[in-house]
Amino acid sequence: MPNYPVEAIRTVALVGHGDGGKTTLAEALLFKSGAIGAQGSLERGDTVCDFDPLEREYRHSLSSALAHFQHGGAEIRLIDTPGFHDFVGQALAALSAVETALVVVNAQNGIELSTRRMMDWAAERNLCRMIVVNKIDAERVDLPGLVAQLREAFGKEVLPINLPADGARRVVDCFFNPAGEADFSSVADAHQALIDQVVEVDEALMARYLEQGEVTPEELHAPLERALREGHLIPLCFVSARTGAGVPELLDVLARLAPNPAEGNPPLFYKKGDGDAALAFRSVPDPARHVLAHVFKVVIDPFVGKLGIFRVHQGTVTRDSLLFVGDGKKPFKVGHLLKLQGKRYDEVDALIPGDFGAVAKVDEIEFDAVLHDSHDEDHIFLKPLAFPTPMQGLAIEAKRHGDEQRIAEVLHRLPAEDPCVRVEQHAVTHETVLRGMGELHLRYLLDRMAGSYKLEVSTRPPRVPYRETITQPAAGHNRHKKQTGGAGQFGEVFLRIEPQQRGAGFAFVDEVKGGVIPGQFIASVEKGVRSVLAAGPVAGCPVEDIKVTVYDGKSHSVDSKDVAFQAAGRKAMLEAMRAANPIVLEPVVAIEITAPEMKLGDLTADLTGRRGQVTGTETLSQSMVLIRGQVPLAELEGYAGRLKSITAGQGAYALVLSHYDAVPQDVQQRLSAGYKVEQEED
């Protein structure tokens, strides 16, 4: 068993916008706590948390990394997460594993898009939140102004728990320390504001405070934890990870004030009931209970195999434990129980609630799985995280002949590691499309395929999945007759076609009377008709929203057979299609854009220029606006880059298919001309 109690554990995730200095801060915390002998740097590529070769090349985090250290009797478990929006899935997944989110803000850049998002997402998960202002020693930094902005954006609950002093060369505590000198504001005023804010959650303590005029730090501990749990207090800390200013004070805050697993809001598990019913289930951080652990990260290494990284919420996981994965009926044995320190794997005997751990080479483990040691916990799952939908896509194919199977295997692994990666197989365009959160995300995935798996692929923008339909009724007829000696072929078909409502699909109706087409050949006619639906006459796109009625025909007692009626049905259908004024349909998507309100005009004008229309706007908090609209999918090529340019990286968007609509005449002519060229080349 570990030589520390559950109450000694603190779990925190460093989150926030890119370039905030989270990895450097993690390195400083490890160094100041004595967990490492020297502080690494991004420039040298020797930090504990950015150990992947691609992270060293890019010089920023691409995946979440785990570390642990001790300070002041506390066992601190830390997750360093990427800050760029392209890798947001890794940061969101980390929120399910911790009690406290440390939202890191770059003092030079102030409040950025991911700052707002992480504050909101952490609040949705009922996490305790702290804001850490980093780079306080940088030039042209307005720290008083930044504090005012943070309080305006996130509420009066944001209060400094320490303040810079001596020109940001050190930081002075304001919670336990009632007086002192600071670069701005007043330590005494900050101390008073903290006490006033904390005692508000405890009526008895507040009454005693008003009567006596003071309370002891010991009396404040329980109400402080409650204030953190309820979001009634969001402590604000100041550090310079580069110089180390404020790092010892941040370590003290984590050790003395951050909640342990018994003090934070417990994660919300659900237990599946009958039908869609699910009952809330609270885990208890008791080492003596049945095991409940949640897999919040999966790593698939070409050499090590699959690594399932989990947080223990209840019970004790030991080496040789037998654990079930989700609803699985057969347990696996924990052969090697691992604790992670960056890229280093250390074997341990046991893990208790609050600990992070890992097991290797268990194929059944998947991201978001619940591990447990009793069938009493079957059908339990953690409240799902709402991950953004990956919109940026690339069609990929093997460069080398014979690599097709390897591509399928690698593409199966990438989504298993990152919840914001999606692989789509498009039957219409016959493409394999890899989707991610942005250009940087896709570039990383391709570099990973090339570096880790030695797999080279060709890429191109995905084709737009156009469709075709008809706009008026028409009739078709064909007599298929073939006589070359011996048994011949004969089949004659009369049919009508008519358009249906958008989304109605395909309908085939048999109105043949008197058996002029024998019943066994009706299916052959339908098969011939359906073969035309695969490639329409205008641009070779699938045909939809059409009704076909077969009403007459002829057969021959000897020469009629399946192949004859297939051919007759196909040719009659082609004749009818050409006469029914066929058109090309394009997918129209509903788009939601979140961006700074000042960019509303630019974004609506850009959408209009893409043949789109704005259907509504909504003002969000913190001067952000939500724009709803509809736009043809074909017009959104390169939109991610355009949005980034307009909003200076502060915008995001999501798409969902709305409907199909007719393309403009010039687009149809272009698509038709391209299809004719393809047919001639074939």
- Percentage beta strand: 25-35%
Reading side by side through the largest sheet, how are the strands ordered? 2-3-1-4-5-9-6
How much helix, percentage-wise, in residues? 25-40%
CATH homologous superfamily identity of the largest domain:
P-loop containing nucleotide triphosphate hydrolases
Overall residue-averaged pLDDT value = 90
Number of strands: 35
Report Rg: 32 Å
Instruction: Return the CATH topology of the largest domain.
Output: Rossmann fold
Describe what you observe in this structure.
- This protein has 16 helices and 35 strands.
- With 682 residues, the protein is α+β, with helices and mostly antiparallel strands.
- It folds into 5 domains: 7-257, P-loop containing nucleotide triphosphate hydrolases (Rossmann fold, 3-Layer(aba) Sandwich), CATH 3.40.50.300; 269-382, Translation factors (Elongation Factor Tu (Ef-tu), domain 3, Beta Barrel), CATH 2.40.30.10; 392-460, Elongation Factor G (Translational Gtpase), domain 3 (Alpha-Beta Plaits); 468-580, Ribosomal Protein S5, domain 2; 584-668, Alpha-Beta Plaits (2-Layer Sandwich).
- Strands 2-3-1-4-5-9-6 form a 7-stranded mixed β-sheet, sandwiched between helices. A 6-stranded antiparallel β-sheet has the order 16-15-21-12-13-20, covered by helices on one side.
- A hairpin with a 6-residue loop joins strand 28 (474-482) and strand 29 (489-499).
- The model has no long low-confidence stretch (mean pLDDT 90).
